[in-house]
Amino acid sequence: MNCIIIDDEATARTIIKKLCSQLPELTVVDEFPNAIQAIKYLNKSEVDLIFLDIHMPDFTGFDFIQTIKNPPRIILTTSDSQFAIEAFEYSCIVDYLVKPLELPRFEKAIQKAKIFQSSNEVVVSNTKPSKAENNPEEKEKPSNEKDLYVNIDRRLIKIDIPTIYLIEAKGDYINIKTEDKNYTVHSTLKKIEDKLPESTFLKVHRSYIINIKKIIDIEDNSVLIKKDVIPVSRSNRPELMKRLNLL
Amino acid sequence: METPNMSYIHSLSGGDKEFEEQLLTIVKKEFPQEKSAYLDEINKENYVKAAECVHKLKHKISILGLEKSYKLADRYENNLKEVNLELQNDFHAILNVITDYLEN
Q1: pTM to 2 decimals?
Q2: Which domains are delineated in chain B?
Q3: Residues where Phosphohistidine occurs (chain B) (predicted)?
Q4: Nearest residue on chain B to A10, judged by CA atoms?
Q5: More confident residue, B99 or A79
Q6: Rounded CA gap, A224 and A113, in Å?
Q7: Interface pTM, i.e. ipTM
Q8: Option in B19, B30, B63 nearest A100 (CB)
């Protein structure tokens, strides 16, 4: 795993580099004393893992996470345990290490990062399997009765499919918007499209799938869903119009 | 009063003397800067900024194996955010002990 270190303390960066050198799967490709320099680097280069300090002058670790597009896996390193709850609200954060760092705990965090890499994808489970199993057609095209389970931080979280109103692609991730909550999942629009009932969901743009039952209005080449205005590509517009109960 | 020690640095280095020297050189460079920044903020009565400086200094305190002092610094950091200087003398004593250790 290629990784970078962001910490305003040279002492902390030196310690993290030393710990990384003891794990052959890790290669430290660069280190930064502030988040701004790291953002510039990430605009040009990709990494697998970031060791990120929270407390930094001017631009904190959390500011950094909110700024970068498609964040890779992040391990937070801090002298404070008080941010742990906030930290796990970000799906890209795999672990939270409190300084002074020690090798056994550091190794555990790296193991988590490896598991995180291989497990963050969409899976579907049927809460009423007997019906679907008896009907092969329904098995391939899930019905409205199904729930969608998404894997976030190694937890399978159930989403009630009818509550989903929008799914947007964001690089290697998709953002699933429901009536109650948004979920960011490492997956693709194609994968989730295959798991949703065709009768309700339609891909209207290369970056958007909408729940057509949630449309408020349609204007030219866009639809209004909740407060989101979603573009409709020219090639997808005929299919959208076909699905609507037009007077 | 606790005495600074190399136990954490030794456990980290696994006997790598070059790394130990490198780390100590960096600590010797950063600690006086962080201490000076902290004292500046205290003199200006910028207690929230002083608390941020204590936060940084806490890491150095832990690296030098000062476990009880780390806990005191942690409390002092939180106190400063509420303009409570109760533990100031104890914290300054810790800084002086570390200064003596790093200079000798």
Answers
A1: 0.64
A2: 17-103 (1.20.120)
A3: 55
A4: B26
A5: B99
A6: 38
A7: 0.94
A8: B63
